[in-house]
Fold this protein.
Amino acid sequence: MTRSGWTYFVNFRDSFQAQCETWKKEAVCGKDNWLGRLQKQAAEADKTPAYPLETSIVYNRSLDDVTQNDLIKLILVGDNPGKNEQLAGNNRYLVGQAGKLGEGFFRKNPELGIDFRKNVIILNKTPIHTAKTKQLALLCKNGGDRFNKLFEESQKWMAEQTALLQQKLKCSLWLVGYGELRKSGLFSLYAETLKKEYEKKRKLSDADVYLYQHFSMNRFSIDLKSHYNGSITLAENLRSIGLMHRKEVIGW
């Protein structure tokens, strides 16, 4: 990273960690861990097998491993932290099966020149944990104004700060898992906020932002294969497919 890029990244990282701590305090009022209670209820309602809920709002500790000598080529944004990510021993994003598939994709395609664990900053659309992303809908339904305010605030913060970081580092931004970015989706506010940030400084068509299927269940690779054009390179295919999904899902 350049000196200015490194300084900006450190400020982002520190702000993100501090913001997660602030949100944690809001989620735990004294002995009333209202967010944790909602998360457990949502998991039970969705018939998720019992698991230890250890971190309701997850800061990605992998950010602490980034150094100034690292060359960041990509910011990759998933949905929200799942069961593996929220474990106190992890508190890292994309460390479950989906993360292994993502890591494997780049390892199998060295022509892209990307090491998933060294050249990629991994973020989410919200740091609020649920065992499955769709369970956020149950939290919205049962959590009232208190949860919905927190959920909306987290999406806006992540979208704004991610867009600014991407532009400062001059790397690509991949949004993996795009279904809930549609107007009626759980992350529609994230999409709207992201659009506003890019509109401030440039034409939306020039934004280095791409949408893809999620790595989970191998959907990313299946989608890539179904749209692959053998007459162009893998990098060109990724750009074409990512722009296609961006246009069809969020309209720019």
The mean pLDDT is 96. The CA atoms of residues 75 and 150 lie 24 Å apart. The domain at 3-250 is CATH 3.40.470 (Uracil-DNA Glycosylase, subunit E). Strands lie at 74-78, 120-124, 172-176, 209-212.
